[in-house]
């Protein structure tokens, strides 16, 4: 049993994109705020803060997770992946990110980090996705710029490319 | 949109969680998947002094098939139940209703029992529990008790759970060559239901359960009915549910949905 007192900060440790991290948090601190404020990982965006918009979606132990509906204390010892972990290196975008760029699947970009995490997870489990499946997944995200159509296009294109990984269609 | 301060307790065993609930009573809230409670905390609609996190209690993470029922533990996530290979055969109504609960991104974390504890009148899992006539397994430091679905939901977001009790799990009867149907109308898939209905064939006729209209999901049994007798029964039921106008839909639209969906689903299961 671990009991964390409300008026103190407590150490929280987990693995973030493969690297061990540690910082302090009050029990009430949300994972979204912990990532951004304590760890400086500001790729994860905070929209509605009650689980509706999907902008803050990350992956915790292989599960899609609203980081605004999760306490930092809850994920102690877990493995967390955020949008910062998608690019293979600092100067190169991942396949899905390249497809987003080609298809104009983002405009203001506020919702994009969450959508990328959902799609990255989904394409990993469904290598041959249907448009209906992607639409169902995207119902958990709000995008007010694109109208979703370019996002669906990008996801299908990325899936096709991941199925035949030799072709590189962009230097981005 | 940040929660008020609380102590956080990560329980390793059920007895630790029960002990904390016994001591703290109504000032404590049980945290499972957090998909309803965390939003309430963020909006400060709930301000508990203590959160008891039960997700690392191994004994609550079980889907157990018994002779006539399936017991689903308190820390079983909705996505885990959806992925249970026997779901469609043992609990076909759950298999139909569960994909309507929230979104993929919330089902991955949210628990089946957490949705019942939250008791939103338009939520799918409370409706399913009532339709199937399942039971809620409650446990405190002193005693265990089983509460029938129809007695568990006491009002909008109110249940029969006492402050010192934990929902240990639920028990759902296994389907025996039954026919089931489920349909929901919402603004978008995954949004809260304006009206959700479940129908099943019973030994004496048919049962229709409706969520999103009354304060609690409500089931009604009829003998085999058709034609105007069925229309009249559905119309009477739609009025008895006491629909109200709100921002999502008018009372009249809700009654229309109950009559229309009810008729469709009953036709489906009695085919």
From TrEMBL, chain A:
One of its GO terms (molecular function) is metal ion binding. It holds the Pfam family Fer2_2. InterPro entries: 2Fe-2S-bd, 2Fe-2S-bd_dom_sf, 2Fe-2S_ferredoxin-like_sf, 2Fe-2S_ferredoxin-type, 2Fe2S_fd_BS, Beta-grasp_dom_sf, Diverse_Oxidoreductases. Signal peptide: none annotated. The keyword Membrane does not apply. Residues 10-86 form the 2Fe-2S ferredoxin-type domain. PROSITE patterns: 2FE2S_FER_1, 2FE2S_FER_2. Keywords: 2Fe-2S, Iron, Iron-sulfur, Metal-binding, Oxidoreductase. PANTHER family: OXIDOREDUCTASE WITH IRON-SULFUR SUBUNIT. This is 2Fe-2S iron-sulfur cluster binding domain-containing protein. It comes from Bradyrhizobium cajani.
UniProtKB/TrEMBL annotation, chain B:
Keywords: FAD, Flavoprotein, Oxidoreductase. The keyword Protein biosynthesis does not apply. One of its GO terms (molecular function) is oxidoreductase activity. Residues 1-177 form the FAD-binding PCMH-type domain. InterPro entries: CO_DH_flav_C (IPR005107), CO_DH_flav_C_dom_sf (IPR036683), Diverse_Substr_Oxidored (IPR051312), FAD-bd_PCMH (IPR016166), FAD-bd_PCMH-like_sf (IPR036318), FAD-bd_PCMH_sub1 (IPR016167), FAD-bd_PCMH_sub2 (IPR016169), Mopterin_DH_FAD-bd (IPR002346). The keyword Oxidoreductase applies. Gene3D superfamilies: 3.30.465.10, CO dehydrogenase flavoprotein, C-terminal domain, Uridine Diphospho-n-acetylenolpyruvylglucosamine Reductase, domain 2. It comes from the Bacteria. Pfam families: CO_deh_flav_C (PF03450), FAD_binding_5 (PF00941). SMART domains: CO_deh_flav_C. SUPFAM superfamilies: CO dehydrogenase flavoprotein C-terminal domain-like (SSF55447), FAD-binding/transporter-associated domain-like (SSF56176). PROSITE patterns: FAD_PCMH. This is Carbon monoxide dehydrogenase.
């Amino acid at each position: 049993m671990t009991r964390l007192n409300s008026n103190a900060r407590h150490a929280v440790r987990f693995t973030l994109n493969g690297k061990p991290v540690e910082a302090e948090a009050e029990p009430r601190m949300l994972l979204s705020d912990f990532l951004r404020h304590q760890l400086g990982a500001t790729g994860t965006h905070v929209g509605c803060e009650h689980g509706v918009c999907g902008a803050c979606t990350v992956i915790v132990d292989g599960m899609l997770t609203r980081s605004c509906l999760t306490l930092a204390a809850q994920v102690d010892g877990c493995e967390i992946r955020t949008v910062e972990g998608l690019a293979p290196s600092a100067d190169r975008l991942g396949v899905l990110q390249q497809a987003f760029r080609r298809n104009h699947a983002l405009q203001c970009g506020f919702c994009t980090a969450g959508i990328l995490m959902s799609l990255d997870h989904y394409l990993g489990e469904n290598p041959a996705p249907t448009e209906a499946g992607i639409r169902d997944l995207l119902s958990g995200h709000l995008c007010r710029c694109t109208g979703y159509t370019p996002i669906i296009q990008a996801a299908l294109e990325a899936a096709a490319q991941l199925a035949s990984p030799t072709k590189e269609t962009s230097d981005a | 949109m940040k929660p008020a301060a609380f102590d956080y307790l990560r329980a390793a065993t059920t007895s630790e969680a029960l002990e904390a609930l016994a001591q703290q009573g109504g000032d404590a809230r049980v945290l499972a998947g957090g998909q309803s409670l965390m939003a309430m905390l963020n909006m400060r609609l709930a301000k508990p002094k203590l959160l008891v996190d039960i997700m690392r209690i191994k004994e609550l993470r079980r889907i157990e098939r018994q002779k006539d029922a399936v017991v689903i533990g308190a820390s079983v996530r909705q996505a885990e139940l959806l992925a249970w290979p026997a779901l469609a055969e043992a609990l076909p109504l759950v298999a139909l209703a569960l994909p309507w609960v929230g979104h993929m991104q919330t089902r991955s974390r949210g628990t089946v029992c957490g949705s019942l504890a939250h008791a939103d009148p338009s939520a799918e899992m409370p409706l399913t529990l009532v339709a199937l006539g399942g039971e809620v397994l409650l446990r405190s430091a002193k005693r265990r008790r089983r509460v029938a679905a129809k007695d568990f939901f006491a009002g909008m977001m109110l249940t029969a759970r006492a402050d010192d009790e934990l929902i240990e799990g639920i028990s759902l009867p296994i389907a025996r060559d039954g026919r089931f149907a489920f349909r929901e109308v919402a603004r978008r898939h995954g949004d809260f239901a304006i009206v959700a209905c479940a129908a099943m064939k019973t030994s004496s006729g048919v049962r229709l359960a409706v969520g999103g209209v009354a304060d609690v999901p409500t089931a009604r049994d009829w003998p085999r009915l058709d034609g105007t007798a069925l229309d009249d029964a559905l119309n009477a039921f739609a009025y008895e549910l006491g629909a109200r106008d709100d921002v999502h839909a008018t009372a009249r639209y809700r009654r229309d949905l109950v009559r229309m969906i009810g008729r469709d689903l009953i036709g489906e299961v009695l085919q």
